[in-house]
Specification:
Layout (H helix, E strand, L loop, with lengths): L11 E3 L2 E3 L4 E4 L10 E4 L3 H18 L4 H17 L1 H12 L3 H22 L6 E3 L9 E9 L3 E4 L7 H13 L3 E4 L6 H10 L9 E3 L4 H4 L1 H4 L5 E5 L2 H10 L4 E5 L5 E4 L5 H13 L11 E5 L3 H14 L18 H16 L3 E4 L11 E4 L6 H4 L6 E7 L2 H9 L3 E2 L1 E5 L3 H10 L4 E4 L15 E2 L2 E2 L4 H7 L1 E9 L3
Parallel strand pairs: 7-8, 7-10, 8-9, 10-11, 12-13, 12-18, 13-16, 15-16, 18-19
Antiparallel strand pairs: 1-2, 3-4, 5-6, 6-22, 11-21, 14-15, 17-20
Length: 481
């Protein structure tokens, strides 16, 4: 890629200092191959060492920060992001290819995530436990409290470069832990811009480092025993391999899925149609809880699928900075090529294209497939693309079994007005979240979020992340005599 001389690299944030390195990183713009989104640097191994050492040293201060100081810092970060909403939203669109409407929504969510972090910082508590359950414990009372565990290693993905990083940064600050964050090299500028706000929040030096790194340098975070927790969002293959090398530290993994949606016979079809179109094709399907597998009751199959395919065809592909754009480019050429190959495989196995299916440069149109064997990769694995595989079902139990026929279990959606079916889906679906009368793509930032099976372990959502970032300790008080 030709790099304009006017592209001035953004420095990286090392323990409260802005630094440069010899390794320059040009950040591509998925929508404009000849116009980079910007530039920054990749941290050197020595800079990595400085960041980790600073985090270890800073823990002696962060662990003692009172709740009001942690809350104040998080509110400053939240307010700073809100003040720069348009600027940060445009940057997300430029370096990730996410349509500007969705980019601004991500900024708004990050504002909320840091605000929630402030609130959670001020209500981390414990409980009083009566211990006098037998004569030997007479006069004894337990008091529990959560304590920060120490430096945290965090690795965040490209598809939500701001808010998924915020879900690591906010709970770390809230719980009094230093953090070293490796943002994605595809779109690192967003969090470096946020680092400008973090730098003014009044946190101790070393409390936060935001360092783009090569995979080799970043890989050192996994086995580094100075970190007490590794939190990673990304692919299952990478995540589980990391866990095997992480040693004794805690590991939280959010690894995506191939989310299923059930449209039951008594569902509100108008509502379901609009929500599933958004849940399947927003950000070109590059969302770990994007609708990928669609199960529709045979009694409404013809009507629903006709309307769904028609709605998919009407979605507008275009420039991410155009507010009328529904779907922007995929993140890179490799993502487009993989999607095309998976669609071709589905067709070779007997699948049918109802709409879409052929890439146009860096854009892949909304694609709907039917009659696709579940052994096809587009059913079995995570497509991470604007592709939906639909199949009819004749009874609700078979739809449940269809959703569960997956090695993933992140979230599932169920559209139904049958209360018994809503409850049975909650009981039987093997996922971390059952979203009734909405798509699995639904998430609000204080709810517990995570999955089962190959979708990971642990939960995000600020309060739930804090539980992993703290250790529970009990003090037993005994009255004399």
């Amino acid at each position: 890629m030709a790099v304009p001389s006017s592209t001035v690299p953004h420095p990286i944030y090392l323990a409260g200092r802005w630094v440069e390195s010899p390794d320059r990183l040009i950040v591509a713009n998925p929508a404009r191959s000849d116009e980079p989104a910007g530039a920054t640097y990749l941290a050197t191994p020595q800079q990595y060492e400085e960041a980790v050492a600073a985090a270890v040293a800073a823990f002696e201060q962060t662990r003692r920060l009172p709740a009001y100081e942690r809350g104040t810092a998080l509110r400053k970060i939240s307010a700073g992001i809100a003040e720069r909403r348009e600027e940060i939203g445009r940057l997300i669109a430029n370096e990730s290819g996410k349509p500007i409407r969705d980019s601004l929504t991500e900024v708004d969510r990050a504002v909320l995530t840091f605000r929630i972090g402030a609130e959670e910082a001020e209500r981390i508590g414990g409980e009083v436990i009566p211990l006098d359950l037998n004569p030997a414990s007479r006069g004894r009372t337990g008091i529990t409290r959560r304590f920060p565990i120490g430096p945290i290693a965090a690795i965040s993905p490209f598809n939500f470069p701001l808010n998924l990083a915020a879900h690591k940064l906010a709970p770390a600050i809230a719980s009094g832990n230093p953090i070293v964050l490796k943002p994605p090299t595809k779109d690192p500028l967003t969090m470096l811009r946020v680092a400008e706000i973090v730098a003014t929040a009044g946190l101790p030096e070393g409390a936060v480092s935001i360092l783009p790194m090569t995979r080799e340098t970043g890989d050192r975070m996994v086995s580094d025993d100075r970190f007490r927790l590794l939190t990673f969002t990304g692919s299952p293959a990478v995540g589980w391999e990391m866990k095997s090398r992480a040693g004794r530290k805690k590991v939280v993994l959010e690894l995506g899925g191939n989310a299923g949606v059930i449209v039951d016979k008594p569902a509100d079809l108008d509502w379901a149609l609009g929500r599933i179109l958004a849940g399947a094709f927003s950000y070109a399907g590059q969302v770990c809880i994007s609708v990928q597998r669609l199960f529709v009751h045979e009694a409404i199959w013809d009507e629903f699928m006709e309307r769904f395919v028609d709605g998919a065809r009407k979605l507008r592909l275009g420039d991410p900075l155009d507010p009328t754009t529904d779907i922007g480019p995929m993140v890179d050429a490799a993502a487009v090529a993989r999607t095309q190959a998976w669609v071709a495989e589905a067709l070779s196995m007997g699948g049918r294209i109802l709409t879409g299916g052929i890439a146009d440069g860096s854009y892949f149109p909304p694609t709907v497939l039917a009659d696709t064997p579940r052994e096809a990769r587009v059913c079995r694995d995570e497509a991470f693309a604007p592709v939906v595989v639909a199949e009819p079902f004749d009874d609700f139990g078979s739809a449940i079994r269809g959703v569960n026929d997956s090695r993933f279990g992140l979230q599932a959606g169920v559209f139904t007005n049958d209360l018994a079916h809503a409850w049975s889906s909650f009981e039987a679906l093997e996922v971390g979240g059952v979203i009734v009368n909405d798509v699995p793509t639904y998430r609000i930032d204080h709810m517990p979020y995570g999955g089962s099976k190959d979708s990971g372990q642990g939960r995000e959502g600020v309060r739930y992340a804090i539980e992993d970032m703290t250790e529970l300790r009990i003090m037993v008080l005994s009255s004399a005599g």
